Amino acid sequence: MEDLVALQYLTASNGFIYILPAPLRKLFPISSVLANNANLGIASFTALVAKAGLTDILNNLVGVTFLIPNDAAITKAQTQLNSLTTAQLRYVIANHILTVSLYSNLFSTNPYTNLLGLSLTPSTSTNAAGETSNKIGAASFVIPNDLTSANGPGQAIDIVLIPATFPAGADFPTVLTGHILNPVTTAVPVTTLQAVTNTKSSTTSAAITTASASAAQTTSAKSASVPGKSLSVSGAVIATIFFFFA
Fold first, then answer.
1. Terminal CA-to-CA distance of the chain, rounded, Å?
2. What is the pLDDT of residues 170-226, one digit of tens each?
3. Is 91 helix (H, G, I), strand (E, B) or coil?
4. Beta bridge partner(s), residue 232
5. Which one is predicted more confidently, 207 or 136?
6. For FRET with 85, which of 9, 10, 179, 241 sits at 20 to 30 Å CA-CA?
7. Is the peptide bond before 144 cis (omega within 30 degrees of 0)?
8. Closest of 231, 218, 178, 219 to residue 14, by C-alpha
9. Residue predicted with more confidence, 226 or 102
10. Mean pLDDT throughout 129-135?
11. How far apart are CA 1 and CA 28, in angstroms?
């Protein structure tokens, strides 16, 4: 999939409007996006996900952000990664997936939570040339950023986020509230993988117009919807609308 750089973005009371130089094309799962952009120095993460048996699971997530250690980061951490059990490796990969769709222009200094329920603290820094860079935890965002997938954006980072210690039973989480697109029933490396739906909470829906006239719906508060299009937070719908002008 060809990446599009927004020419301009406008802020509305309920979200953002992006002006694009071309129509949006079909969004592909994260594994395809990583494979198609391997020349950008992120091929090693694809192999790491496959080794952990998580390719299908990651392809079925929604409303998340993938923090993708680049090839140099994985090479530097290879000895430590090789020492991990498969379950620990899956835990490490889950440590790199945020529970929100975080595009670079939406970056803030509010803490973000990953799939493990752990908080990652973001920050910004400015060098002598006046260039600002984003960090999350100890990791700095590097090129490429804002890789667009059907599951959520991908942001390349310069280190592998390996915890100093692993809790007992460390593994990829078995319950992912509001972040499963299509439950995987085969080749699942964890005992149970299920989406938890709060049937007692009210449902909020919003039609999102895109260049291809597709629509997305949001569910209850705290539930993620189609990546890059809508996110329901505390009952308020935040929409991202893309316009293409020929």
1. 20
2. 999 987 777 775 544 333 333 333 333 333 333 323 332 333 333 333 333 333 333
3. helix
4. 237
5. 136
6. 179
7. yes
8. 231
9. 102
10. 83
11. 7
CA distance 23 to 4: 9
Vertex 118: Cα angle to 235 and 29 (nearest 5): 70
Q: Please list, in sequence order, all residues whose beta carbon lies within 8 angstroms of the beta carbon of residue 134, skipping any fewer than 6 positions away.
A: 104, 107, 122, 123, 124, 140, 141
Spatial contact of 7 and 231, defined as CB atoms under 8 Å apart: no
Beta bridge partners of 18: 9, 242
Structure tokens at 185: 């029933």
Is this prediction's pTM over 0.85? no
- How does strand 132-136 pair with strand 236-244? unpaired
Copy the structure tokens of residue 46.
């694809």
The DSSP element (H or E) to which 232 belongs, if any, is: strand 230-233
Percent of the chain with pLDDT over 70: 67
For residue 54, how many C-alpha atoms fall within 13 Å in the half-sphere facing its CB?
25
Q: How far apart are CA 117 and CA 175, in angstroms?
A: 11
The CA distance from 20 to 211, in Å, is 10
Write the pLDDT tens digit of every residue in 36-72. Answer: 998 999 999 999 999 999 999 999 999 999 999 999 9
CA distance 24 to 45: 26
* 215 DSSP assignment: -
Place of tokens 């395809």: 32
Q: Which residue would you say has higher pLDDT here, 10 or 22? A: 10
CA 97 to chain centre: 6
